[in-house]
Structure formats: C-alpha cells, structure tokens
Model the fold of this input.
Amino acid sequence: MTADAKAAPVLDVRDLHVEFTTHGGVVKAVRGASFSVAAGKTLAIVGESGCGKSVSVQSIMGLIPMPPGRITGGAALLHGTDIVRRKIVDGDDVRGNRIGMIFQDPMSSLNPTMKIGDQIAETLEVHRGYSRAKARARAVELLTQVQIPEAEERSQQYPFAFSGGMLQRAMIAMAIACEPSVLIADEPTTALDVTIQAQILDLLAELQRKNGMAIVLITHDLAVVARMADEVAVMYAGEIVERGAVEDVFDQPAHPYTLGLRGALPSRSTERAGLNPIEGAPPDLFAPPAGCGYFARCAHAMRVCEQHHPQQLPVAAGHAARCWLHAPDAPRTHPAIQHRVRR
Amino acid sequence: MSALVETIELTKHFAMGRGRTVHAVDGVSLAIAEREVVGLVGESGSGKSTFGRTLVGLHAKTAGEVRFAGEALPSSYGPADFRRHAANMQMIFQDPYSSLNPRMTIGEIIGEGLRLAGGQGRAQIRAAVADWLARVGLEPQHASRYPHEFSGGQRQRVGIARALILKPRFVVCDEPISALDVSVQAQIVRLLGDLKASLGLTLLFIAHDLSMVRYVSDRMAVMYLGSLVEIGTADDVYFRPKHPYTEILIGSNPEPNPRTERRRVAVAVTGEIPSPVNIGAGCRFASRCPKVMEVCRRVTPRLEPLADGGARRVACHLYTSPAAISGST
Done:
C-alpha cells in the first residue's frame, strides 16, 4: 500500500521467504519480507544481527550459496521482471549491472591480488563489452567521481595500499560503473569511523542526486537511517515488522520493537534520560513462534499475540506495522501507540 | 582532587624497523579520580586502545609513568607485577569472541583470576564464579559451558565477570559495546552502570560511539594521533566542543532523528587520519584542520586550560596563542 500510490517501484520484493538447511535443522531466516524502492529514493532496512536483513538482499542477488540456502517463496521484481530465479534479464546479468552492491567489509570484498583500476575495469569489460583500454580509462573517471585523489595513480595500486574509507569509495566506483538503477548498500559504513562515515554517506547521497538510482541501505544504525532514508523497513526475526516514511516511523513508531530500539539509544538532549534496554533475545528461527516473534520481549503483549501471527496492519497513510495493537478492536495501551490507534 | 589513576606523559612507541617508529601514544597525561568515569574517544588509529593497554601494563611503557593510588607502577610488567596489580586494575575487551579462550569453560575463564591469585580453594572459587554469573545476569549452570555456546552479549557479560571477580578498583573498558547490537549495548551499559555503583568502580571507557560515551562518562577526553586534544566534562565536550577536531568528530556523528539530519550542514572533514609514523613538530591535526594557522605547523600545542577558568583543557593554538585570539570563536 505504500509504494502503489506513488511512482512505480524500481525494485519490488514481495513476500520473500528464505531458509537454510543446517545440521541443526532448517533456519527460517526470512519469513515473508515485502519491500520496494522507487527511483531516486532510499529505502533503509534496519534491524539487529540475525534479523534477516542481509539475507533478504543477498538472496535476491543470488549471493547465497544454494544449498544450504533456499528461496522458498516470493518474488523480486526489477522493473517488473522477477529476478529471484533468473539472473539474466534481456541478455544481461542483473548483478553488478542493473543492481550494484557494496558491502560492509571492502577489504574482503575486493580481490587482493588485482589492481583497483583493473577490478573496476573488469566489470565494464564483462557487462558492457568495453575494450581493456577504454574500461581502464573509465575506471579512472569513476575513481575521480568517488573523490579519490590522484585517481590515475591510485588505480594502479592494490587494495592493501588503500585505507578503509578509500576502499569503500573504490567499491562504490565499481558498483556504479554500469549505472545500475538500484544500489544495494549492505552496512556500508559500519566498519568506518564517524568522520569517514559522514564522507561516504555524503558521497552516496550526491551520486544518487546525480544519477537518480534507488538505494537499498541495510544498516543497524538508526542514526544512519535518519540521515539517509526516505522510507524505512524495520526487520525483526525474519519479518518486516514496521514500514513507512522515515519521519513517521521515527516520530510515531507503531511497533513495540521500533519503540524499544529507540529507547535503547542514549538521548542526544542535554538531560540524561535512562537507557531502556530491550530485555531478552530474539526467538529461535529454527522453530519460529506461532504468534508474534516479538511476543516474549514485548511490554505490550496480549493474549492474541502468543498464538496468532500478526498481520501487517495500517497505522496511517503509507505506514503499517505487523502488530495486533493496531487491530481495530485492540486495547489502547502504550501512549506512543495510543494516539495512532484512535484515528 | 586526588587521582586514583594518573598517567604522566605516558608514551608508547612501536619500532617498525629501518628507523621508523609508530608514535601510538605520545605524552598523554590524564588523572582519573576515584569513582570517576572518563570516556576516551577518537578515530581508529588515534591510539586510544594502546593507551588503555599500556595503562594496565599489557604494553611496556616507552616513557612516562602510571601511578595507581599514588604508587608508581613498573614500566614493564613481569609475572609478579601482573599478579600484584591484576587485583587493582582490570580490562574488559572489545571483542567478546576473540578475548575468551575457546577451550576453557566459562567457569574456568571467570575463575582463572582467583585461581592465579591463590589463597582460595576450588570450592570457594566455584562459589564465587556462581555468584558472579548471577550478578552479570547469567545462570549458574553456564559455568560448565564453552564460549561458542553464547551470544555476543552473553560473552561480554562473561568478560565483565572475569574482569570484576578480583574486585579491582579501576577497570579499562576497551570498546566494550562496539561489537554488540543496539538493544544489547543498552543491556551491557546498564549492567556496567549498576556494577560501577555497587562496587564503587573507577572506569576508563574507551569507545568511538560519542553519544554512548557522553551518556556513561563524567568527563570525556578526545584523542587524535596519539595525543589528547581536548578534555572536559562530558556535556561540555559533547555540546560545546572547542578543539576543531572535536567539533568535526561530534559534527560527523549522526543522530537518530530525521528532522535534524535533514537540516544538517555537512561538516565532513576532508582526508583521513595520517600515519602515526615519524611525526614531526606542529599540531597533529594541522593537515586536516579547517582553521589551521601558520603557527600550527611549527609549534606543537599543549593541553592547557581555557581562559574561562573551567575544567576544560584544549590543545589548540586558537585558544593559547595571543596572535590568534582574534580569530577564535
């Protein structure tokens, strides 16, 4: 209901299910995730370790070894074409071409035995059929575009000669080489210092302004979400528990987990309000609970939550939460949720 | 104010061979009062972890001194020194995965300090371990399990119990929450706060998460390339930074609020932290500083109190050089 009212999404993921077969049994890592992003917009998928945020995007990119991984349901439409089972669209591999991707750890994502410029050029040779010389020249242009000083010289260096921030810039250059319509950034600044994080986030925003690509930003950091996102999807235990415009989700969180995440952060105001950790741990995804995945940790849990899996319920225009508190006949409990329920 | 822990011009250099030296920590003087929490922030490579490790004796000192309750500690520790000082000073490490021996049970890890200290029987140690497991929110039966059976947050609880079982008076927490999820970070910070209050601990809290450091600390110290550039009360440094580097560091720290983030003026500093190898004279931040003056490249600024008579000290010519006072903010 969020995206349909607006411009047609570039990437539209519907009811994605991903499982892994392990020695301990089958892990249901993603349990029906739906999200979409429009051109020139940024969707942030936020959640904690193990919530399935990385697996969601990696599975649609075909980056999950199968087996043990398996997409058991759902679709990922890129400009209307499902890319879940086939990676070739109109004779082109979507990966690295239609969809670019950058990762948390640029050092381990680049080939240590290949010059930076050649790694970027390779993308253009493979996807665009550029000659070696043309691809190399373009690689230097791209390195300049991501603000690497002395790009010509740097393109001849190996990854070990680059700092973490510079490597991430090189990764971005590689990811945008084929002018993708979607850039997936999986924790792009988690390994970086705040000053370098600010530089990389500014760079991503500027590239997006110039070329209008959609960005899917995977992060655990609500501050990064606040800075970058137009829309946000909060993920917990393999599901998207809340989605909406970033202002709505931050100002009026509708799912108790989103509220909990905000309470666990230190306040930036001058008075020191206490931290309110979310006690407990996420559920075991080998045997996901029948009801709400957040039931055991939720301060507002009701009897219905234990046995009945909550539906995605509308909270306001373009804002929905997977929580029974938003059912029409739910009690009015939490003040932050109350005023939304009354509408 | 009598300090419980004090460093005087503490210096730690690492030789790289061929005459090159990494100036990891260069002449850091810091006094920490009893029951005080001092937060130490800085980028990777600023030397904050090396400072913490040198402080507790894990690195031999190149120069300078560490005093604990007035007593000067040895410049490099032997086994007897560790045994003697481990009961006073302990450390909680960043990575709860690599800092616990995977081949020892949780009970052995937590009880090892007591065993090495001697004087207690196995039954006593076992009872103390069970007590500490409960105090950090774990179960007594966890003592017989191995680290791989625990989540990151639980391992950090083990690391805390391991450090505190000897009842130290001073603990260096080296990025104790950086590897943890947001909701777990808050759990660990709250646990540390409760233990600090009940045990009367003095803490050096090293981290790069500025808002969390401000939240837990009484005072906050900012480190850049081996030196302290600013120190003051946590709120002063966080809300009213004086050193240009502190301004940039705090300005780069995004807030979880989309409205303020949208209005944010970009303060991104250009360039990256330079190499700490063979540092010359002048301010170490001069190469990146937006307010750099001619004097900054020649004369190394010293950490000096601000003219306002407060507790804040800043190492910046904007505040100390008479010629530059007109240009200061």
